[in-house]
Automatic annotation (TrEMBL):
<dbReference type="GO" id="GO:0043957">
    <property type="term" value="F:acryloyl-CoA reductase (NADPH) activity"/>
</dbReference>
<dbReference type="InterPro" id="IPR036291">
    <property type="entry name" value="NAD(P)-bd_dom_sf"/>
</dbReference>
<dbReference type="InterPro" id="IPR013149">
    <property type="entry name" value="ADH-like_C"/>
</dbReference>
<dbReference type="InterPro" id="IPR020843">
    <property type="entry name" value="ER"/>
</dbReference>
<dbReference type="InterPro" id="IPR014188">
    <property type="entry name" value="Acrylyl-CoA_reductase_AcuI"/>
</dbReference>
<dbReference type="InterPro" id="IPR013154">
    <property type="entry name" value="ADH-like_N"/>
</dbReference>
<protein>
    <submittedName>
        <fullName>Acryloyl-CoA reductase</fullName>
        <ecNumber>1.3.1.95</ecNumber>
    </submittedName>
</protein>
<dbReference type="Pfam" id="PF08240">
    <property type="entry name" value="ADH_N"/>
</dbReference>
<dbReference type="GO" id="GO:0043958">
    <property type="term" value="F:acryloyl-CoA reductase (NADH) activity"/>
</dbReference>
<dbReference type="Pfam" id="PF00107">
    <property type="entry name" value="ADH_zinc_N"/>
</dbReference>
<feature type="domain" description="Enoyl reductase (ER)">
    <location>
        <begin position="13"/>
        <end position="323"/>
    </location>
</feature>
<keyword id="KW-0560">Oxidoreductase</keyword>
<dbReference type="InterPro" id="IPR011032">
    <property type="entry name" value="GroES-like_sf"/>
</dbReference>
<dbReference type="InterPro" id="IPR051397">
    <property type="entry name" value="Zn-ADH-like_protein"/>
</dbReference>
Length: 327
């Protein structure tokens, strides 16, 4: 038997409970994992609170991230005792996820835990940090370098933003952090932000072309924030867009793209191919100081995750929730 958070569909919507399950109830897969840690992401918050219909079939174990030890494997890449990380691939939406003590997954979805990180640190990073690394990779691959100017990170106290700030600082960039929590300026400056900006400055409709400010942008907000970020990006710069915290709309014009050659780079972490995932985790291992994770992550037990999801969705949380599924 093992413990798991389970979302069941009901006549009134859904019920979320902590249950004891038999290993025979696990879904199909060629790798069975003894889970050590999971985490709470925005999508997990949506699933657990029922705020959005992200769960595609019921019953469902949420949790789009996990790290653990392989217990059994019929996949050529993995053997018992290997420590592996899972991010995305629709896990926690259409396939049972990581908020459980056991998981059964496809081996093709897994990557090895980098030796630079402990299992708990890997979940302080999680999909949010891995997405941040994908964003930084996209900007660097485009040609954004520290000598070209400041890089803006929106939603900077969140999981993606926090890790992006820390990585960019390590790479030598001057980082501006946009946040609705300006009271957390010390936290952001501790991660490496040089400037902290109130999100109100960029969250309303602005001119289609504005003063050039940013060599690059990591955007988690979408909507007017993304439109203004594009309008403020310097000639030849790039914006890596990975989120929709403000909204899924993009009330912008083509002017930044056709007059300044700005690139809008879409970042998908869920279905990213394995080579891109390995590159992102290599970036994290090289360019994220593990001590920064002490400020980013706070650990809770599996039994606390349901209530914590509500706090997460109400915007009360900075950084990351790490879920010790065995606590």
């Amino acid at each position: 038997m093992f413990s798991a958070i389970m979302i069941d569909k009901t006549d009134d919507g859904q019920a979320v409970t902590l249950q004891q399950l038999d290993e025979g109830s696990l879904p199909e897969g060629d790798v069975t994992i003894d889970v050590a840690y999971s985490t709470l992401n925005y999508k997990d918050g949506l699933a657990i609170t029922g705020s959005s219909p992200v769960v595609r079939k019921f019953p469902m174990v949420p949790g789009i991230d996990l790290v653990g030890t392989v217990a059994e494997s019929s996949h050529a890449d993995w053997k018992a005792g290997d420590t592996v990380v899972l991010n995305g691939w629709g896990v926690g939406e259409g396939h049972w996820g990581g908020l459980a003590q056991k998981s059964r997954l496809k081996g093709d979805w897994l990557v090895p835990l980098p030796t630079a990180f402990t299992p708990a640190q890997a979940m302080a990073i999680g999909t949010a940090g891995y997405t941040a690394a994908l964003c930084v990779d996209a900007l660097v691959d485009w040609g954004v370098t520290p000598d070209k100017g400041e890089v803006l990170v929106t939603g900077a106290t969140g999981g993606v933003g926090s890790v992006a700030v820390a990585i960019l600082k390590k790479l030598g960039f001057s980082v501006a952090a946009l946040t609705g929590k300006t009271s957390e300026a010390d936290y952001l400056k501790g991660l490496g932000a040089q400037t902290v900006i109130d999100r109100a400055e960029m969250s309303a409709k602005g001119k289609p072309l504005q003063k050039e400010r940013w060599a690059g942008v990591v955007d988690t907000a979408g909507s007017f924030t993304l439109a203004n970020a594009c309008a403020q990006t310097r000639y030849g710069g790039a914006v890596a867009a990975c989120g929709l915290a403000q909204g899924m709309d993009l009330p912008a014009t083509v002017m930044p793209f056709i007059l300044r050659g700005v690139a809008l780079l879409g970042i998908d972490s869920v279905m990213a191919p394995k080579a891109r995932r390995l590159k992102a985790w290599d970036r994290l291992a090289k360019d994220l100081n593990p001590t920064a994770l002490d400020a980013i992550g706070q650990t809770i037990g599996l039994g606390e995750a349901i209530e914590a999801a509500g706090r997460f969705m109400s915007g009360e949380v900075k950084g990351r929730y790490i879920v010790d599924v065995n606590a």
